Amino acid sequence: MESAEVAERIKIAQQTAQQQVDAGAIAGAKQTLEETGKQVATLSGEDLEKEINRILGIKAQKDRDAKIAAAKPPEPDWATLDEVQATNLNLPFNVEVIEHEVPAYMDIRLKDPEYVAVWANRDQRRLGELFAQGYEILKSEHIDSDFKLPLRFDSENCYTYMDVIALRVHKRILFAKRRRVVEKSVYQLRALQAVAKSKVQDKMDTEDPLLGNAFRSGRMGFYDAGGGVDVD
After folding, report:
1. For 20-89, what is the HEC assignment?
2. pLDDT tens across 23-58, in order?
């Protein structure tokens, strides 16, 4: 890059930076520009190019933002504005609608990753059963400090919503229960599949011996709900 071109671009960058300060900070800005000039002298041509483009990019973005703001119609006089005027679409009002995101009221993130938060009906019989299994009432100290709860704990430091209450339980207890439910379902399906397999096999032996031999030899198999292919 030619020295004259570098000097010109530095001058543009300095002018742009100087325009970004107010009148009360001109002295400090001049000092900053002098220090910046010293730093620029030590930059390589590639780094200098990047810095100049960064400053010019900031200026261009501010110019675009200013144009967008100027194109918006002014806000109305809220003191005299009535509902009829506010809903009159022929009047150019700059009224931004505030969108409210509906929070997931029942989401919870715990401090201890070995535990899981669950919701249970506040019926005393149901709670007694869960407490006997190892569940415990969720307290405020169990919540992850970085998680913002959408609801508040009540006067007894319980986290409730409608007719349910939040509990916490160790993964060893909860996941073992869920795994047992899946196992029972698989065993029941396997028993039904064994009956269905026998009926289908007999029908294939009668109507399509080649297909029946393929199943008997193991070249083809039945789907297994437990994750395998064939059913014993």
Report:
1. CCCHHHHHHHHHHHHHHHHHHHCCCHHHHHHHHHHHHHHHHHHHHHHHHHHHCCCCCCCCCCCHHHHCCC
2. 445 555 555 656 666 665 666 767 777 777 888 888
